[in-house]
Amino acid sequence: MPLPFSSPTLRHRLPLLLALGLSLALSFALIAARVAITRQWQFVFLLWNLFLAAIPFALSAALHLAARAPKARLLLPVGLMWLLFFPNAPYLVTDLFHLEPHPGVPYWYDLALIMSCAWNGLMLAFASLLDMHALVRQRLGFWVGWSFATVALGLSAFGVYLGRYLRFNSWDILSNPFSLFYDIVQRILHPFHNWQTWGVTVVFWAFLLIAYATVRLLGRVEVAVENEG
């Protein structure tokens, strides 16, 4: 039985891992340089956000690179854990809310810093979802695969709202489940009194879904061009 590291899947994945690694290294370097120059820890929290964004990618990659296809008894709990942490990746886009002029730092520098982190969040999210989408499609078919991806992005958009506006995080499902459940139920039972909840969720859902579909189509175009060549 070949080891996972020797599998063609991982060999094909190496360029993506290198690209993600370089992109993350750029974010780390921008944050480190800002701290070294200003002696302020203003954007160091983005390192934690990037770590949380990498968790769903690590989980989905581990499932996808397993030597054998994961069985349902493993796929289901890992999939639920993946879904719990998945919103942390696109959440990084909302860190653009922190962009404002700061003395001693060029505005463009902070823009580049936060945009690089937001980009990494999106790329980690889409790379992770591609893996999970493929696993579901292989087991249950094309339409179930796309339904899974669509629902996952919708729940992620709602999770981004919970994190950005209500300040919940993935750990609260264990440490603060009653408050989390209460706030979710209130927004479901009283949608018109919580129009911002559903406005943010629907708009962000649409953005993520269109962006994810675009990434998939770009991959297909690349394959088609290579085949033509």
Automatic annotation (TrEMBL):
The chain crosses the membrane at residues 43-67, 74-93, 105-130, 142-162, 195-215. Pfam families: DUF1361. InterPro entries: DUF1361. This is DUF1361 domain-containing protein. The keyword Ion transport does not apply. It comes from Hymenobacter polaris. Keywords: Membrane, Transmembrane, Transmembrane helix.
